[in-house]
Amino acid sequence: MIQKIKQNRSLAEYLFPPSADQGAYRAERVDRFARFEKLTSLLDDSFTIPGTSIRVGWDSIIGIVPGLGDMISTVLSGYLIYQAKQLGASNWVLARMVGNTGLDFLLGSIPVAGDIFDVFFKSNRRNSRLLKKHLDRRNAS
Question: Do the Cβ atoms of 77 and 124 come closer than 8 Å?
């Protein structure tokens, strides 16, 4: 039996099959990315404005509350950035995500004009596209 093990794979691979660990790790990443996408949709694309094709999310609705609303939205976006880090985003991608979130916070804090800006500038959706693009490129190589 030992000869057969040596011919096919190492003892470590025999004792600790990589597919079992990788499968659990992959399932965790898939779940984490699904939560990331769900929160992104909730924040940026939850509702359609009646009579238009414009979609808004809780980020735009919460942002109506002066000061506090933008803070809460930024904290939720920060959580998404943390999740992106856990999913393996590079420092460059994370920096761009922080830039998108910062711009959303700064311009979204302006009364009235910031609320309109929040409807059209969907920082979480942009961050989601950045993460997907990065992960696709990384997995392709």
Answer: yes
**Pairs from 95-104 (Cβ < 8 Å, separation ≥ 24):** 96/127, 96/130, 97/127, 97/130, 97/131, 100/126, 100/127, 100/130, 101/74, 101/77, 101/127, 104/59, 104/73, 104/74, 104/77
pLDDT in tens, 105-138: 999 999 999 999 999 999 999 999 999 999 888 8
pTM, two decimals, is 0.79
SS (H, E, C) the chain: CHHHHHHHCCHHHHHCCHHHHHHHHHHHHHHHHHHHHHHHHHHHCCEECCCCCCEECHHHHHCCCCCHHHHHHHHHHHHHHHHHHHHCCCHHHHHHHHHHHHHHHHHHCCCCHHHHHHHHCCHHHHHHHHHHHHHHHHHHC
Of 96, 45, 131, 78, nearest to 70 by C-alpha is 78
- Could you tell me if 62 and 75 are in contact, meaning their C-beta atoms sit under 8 angstroms apart? no
- Tokens 């460059």 belong to 92
